[in-house]
Design goal:
two-stranded antiparallel ribbon; alpha/beta; 238 residues
Length: 238
């Protein structure tokens, strides 16, 4: 059940699982200032994702169910794309270049076809937390909501996952994600690192061949967890 978070200004609904864990964080002064900022931005400007999808990464993947974490940086800032999950887009939109490269690596790694859409909701529902460092953005202004408090909030999310759970697979793609995930306890979790799947990084040889998806599933099986269904043969669009 989704309930409004009790902020000075409601940002978006957040499920009870995460709401309980993050209660003390959302009561801190920085988060109340962030809430006010986001409320004003959404009231006066066009921002993404839609307000009720800001916490989609959490609402589709509970803390209890999280077994894989993929870190992104910002939501897509062009209309119609962002749906609250990093690298994911609404199912009727063209697949972005970075996700095309993610799909290419999956197909090479697992020898299976990927979906013809870019909606990763079914990954999230299997326990993949698709977490952007910054959860909101103004239209056509990449990075416009950075350094307003989101990074501190999502750092706390990563800290909680690392400290309170075991055997999570953290996929850190690119320099930004590697820095953000640097404090993950690698003695109790699997940390996979590579270049970013963006065309610039991938075409320089820093992405393809990392085999993160098979490595992830091997680790999940070894830790008595259900592997992730990444591919077209295994997924049906919601």
């Amino acid at each position: 059940m989704l309930r409004a978070v009790n902020f000075a200004n409601m940002i978006a609904p957040l499920n009870d699982d995460w709401k309980s864990l993050l209660k003390s964080e959302t009561e801190k002064p920085y988060f109340k200032a962030l809430s006010n900022f986001v409320d004003q931005e959404y009231t006066n400007k066009q921002c993404f994702p839609e307000r009720n999808k800001i916490f989609n990464a959490f609402n589709h993947c509970s803390f209890e169910d999280t077994k894989v974490v993929i870190l992104g940086q910002d939501p897509y800032h062009k209309p119609g794309l962002a749906n609250g999950l990093c690298f994911s887009v609404n199912s009727d939109m063209a697949i972005p270049a970075s996700l095309i490269n993610i799909y290419r690596e999956i197909e090479s790694d697992l020898q299976q076809k990927t979906p013809k859409h870019g909606n990763l909701t079914l990954w999230a529902k299997q326990g993949v937390l698709l977490l952007n460092a910054t959860l909101t953005v103004e239209i056509h202004k990449a990075g416009s909501h950075q350094k307003k408090g989101w990074e501190q909030f999502t750092d706390r999310v990563i800290e909680l996952l690392s400290a309170k759970k075991e055997n999570i697979v953290f996929m850190l793609w690119g320099g930004y994600a590697k820095v953000k995930g640097a404090k993950v306890d690698s003695s109790k979790h699997l940390v996979l690192q590579s270049g970013h799947p963006s065309p610039l990084s991938a075409n320089r040889g820093y992405w393809f061949g990392n085999k993160h998806f098979s490595s992830c599933n091997t680790y999940l099986k070894q830790s008595q967890q259900t592997p992730i269904k990444w591919t077209k043969e295994e997924l049906t669009l919601f």
